[in-house]
Amino acid sequence: MGATEKLAKFIAETGYKDVPEEALKIAKDAFLDCLGAALAGAVDPSGKLVAEYVREMGGRGEAGVIGYGFKAPAEHAALAIGTMAHALDYDDVSHAMTGHPSVTLLPVVLTLGQALEASGKEVLLAYIVGFEVEAKIGLGIGRRHYASGWHNTATLGTMGATAAASKIMGLSVERTRTALGIAASIASGLRQNFGTMTKPLHAGNAARGGIFAARLAGKGLTAATDILEGEAGFCQVFGGSGEYSLSKMTDNLGNPWGIISPGVVLKPYPSCRFSHRAIDGALALKKKYQLRAGDVSEIECLMSPIAAKTLMYHHPTTGLEGKFSLEYCVSVAILDGEVGLKQFADERVRRTDVAEMMSRVRFKKMNEAPSGEMGGHAIAPEVVTVRLKNGKEYSHSVKLAKGEPSIPLSREELLAKYRECASFVLSPQDTERCLEMVSSLETVKNISALMELVSSPSPARLRR
Fold first, then answer.
1. Hey, what domains does the chain have and what are their CATH numbers?
2. What is the mean pLDDT of residues 261-271?
3. What is the reported pLDDT for 376?
4. CA torsion angle for 268, 271, 274, 278 (degrees, to 10)?
5. Which residues contact 140 (CB under 8 A, 6 or more apart)?
6. What digits encode the pLDDT tens for the residues 149-191?
7. How far apart are CA 48 and CA 108, in angstroms?
8. How far apart are CA 107 and CA 354, in angstroms?
9. Helix, strand, or coil here: 372?
10. Which pLDDT score, from 0 to 100, does residue 377 have?
C-alpha cells in the first residue's frame, strides 16, 4: 500500500471512538484559542479586507463569516475566517508541522460543518484528523521545505485542511486520495510574505483550498492517487530528493497522536513564535532587576539560526513587521514590561523610544543549528544578556518558551486570552456562551448554533 493510500485510509476510516480523551481535551482548548484569535482578527485590517471581498463575491449562503453577520459559500467563508485567525499571529503552533495547525483547520470544520449541519463530535473528529495529517507530513517532509522559503502553514496546511474537509464530508478512501492529489497542486505560500497581510492570507487560502479540493473530488474530478510518493509528487517537489521520509508520514498515524505528542503550543504573545524565547528572557530580566530603558546600553540575544533568519525585520515600521522583528519584540518587552495586542499597533512600533531601544539590540547567532530544531523545538537555549550603562550585566537563558506543552498556559491564562480576543466582536454574555459551547463541543448537536453566535456581532463592537 502506497503512502497516499495509507494516509487516505486513515482519514476515511478513523472514528470518534479511536481518538483518546486526552486528544479531545487538548483539541477543545486549541479550538477555543484559535476561535478567540479569529474573533480578534475580524477587526484587523487584513480580516476586514478579506471579509469585504467575500461579501462582494456573493454566492450561496452556506456558512457565516465570523464577526460580519452574513453568509457565504463555505470555501469563501473559510478564506475569510482563516485570514482573521492568523491575522494577529496569536494562534497555535505545532512543532511537528513547523507551522500553525488550527488556522487552516478551524475554518474548514466550522464552515463546512455549518453547511452540512454537522455535530460537535463530527467537527472535533475532522479537526483532530486534519491536525494529525499536518503533524505527520510535517515530521516527514524534512528541513529543506521550510528552509527553502515555503510557509508550512500554507503548504502542509492545505493538505491538513483537505483531510479535515474530506473527513467531515465522509469521502471514501479513493475520493480522499483524489482530494489529496488536487490539494497538492494548489498548495503554496512563501515566507518572503512574512510581515505583510499576505501571511495571514496563506492560512485562509489553505482552508479554502481544502474545501475546494474535497468538494471537487466528491464530484468526481480526477487527480494523481500517489501524490505523496510520486516521482514528481508533493514530497519530491516540496521536500527534495533524499530529504523526506514517507515512513514518518504514515507508519505511526494516531500512534501517538500529534496533538498529544509533540503537542500543540498556545501562544502567550501575538508575534512570531521564534521571538518568544527572547521575549521570555527580556521580560524575566525586566521583572527581576526592575530594568529601566534609560539604563540599558546594549541587549545581546544569542539566537538559533532559524530564528535569526525568520525574524527578518531589523527596522520595522508597522505592527505586522514588528511581529517578525527580534529588535522590536525585545525592546518593547523592556520598555513596557508586557507584549500583548496593543504592543503591535503601528503607532507603538513607530515611537521614538522604540527606535532608540532597538538600536541597542544585537543578534548573536549560535554556531550551528541545534539538532531537532526543525520539526521540533530547538534544543540549545537562547540567551538574552542586558548590559547597563553602569557596567553591570545580567543574562537569562530560555530553553523552552512559555506555552510549550511542558510549560503550558494556565487555564486562567488561556481563558483571559480568549476573553480579551472575543471582546473585539462579542458581548460579555455571548463570550461566555461561546466558551460554554466549545468546552462541551462533543455535546453540540449542530455546529450552526456556535456559528450563528460568533457570526452575529454587535455592530458597535465591530467598528472598533
1. 3-250 (1.10.4100.10), 273-398 (3.30.1330.120)
2. 98
3. 44
4. -70
5. 235, 239, 244, 245, 246, 247, 248, 249, 250
6. 999 999 999 999 999 999 999 999 999 999 999 999 999 999 9
7. 19
8. 36
9. coil
10. 46
